[in-house]
Design a protein that fits this description.
106 residues; alpha+beta; 5 helices; 3 strands; 54% helix; globular
Length: 106
């Protein structure tokens, strides 16, 4: 299914190195929340997972209809939500752009 491969395939090590800034998130909070709602309603869940033995570090995991991809980077509890919203926006933009392109070709 296109949704599954697109959501999982867009998360690359190069992409994960960029971090959303708190000020950028605050300025565009409605857009990030819309993207997060879109992902959830599309069956793509993005969440933080605890690292055993590491008290203040977590990783990001994407669950796309049961297909799970775990990020390789670790984040603090304070910054992980920024990465979650950043990934949600990235997936939202990719999927809505793909949908728009598919409608143009019909």
């Amino acid at each position: 299914m296109i949704l599954r491969s697109l959501a999982i395939g867009t998360i690359t090590p190069k992409y994960l190195t960029n971090m959303l800034k708190k000020a950028e998130f605050d300025r565009n909070i409605e857009l990030y929340l819309k993207a997060h709602r879109f992902c959830i309603s599309s069956g793509v869940l993005i969440y933080a997972g605890a690292i055993e033995g590491m008290r203040n570090l977590v990783y990001v995991e994407v669950n796309d209809h049961g297909k799970i991809q775990r990020g390789k980077q670790y984040y603090t509890n304070e910054e992980v939500y920024l990465k979650i919203y950043e990934l949600a926006l990235h997936i939202y933009q990719k999927m809505t752009n793909l949908h728009a392109q598919n409608n143009k070709t019909k």
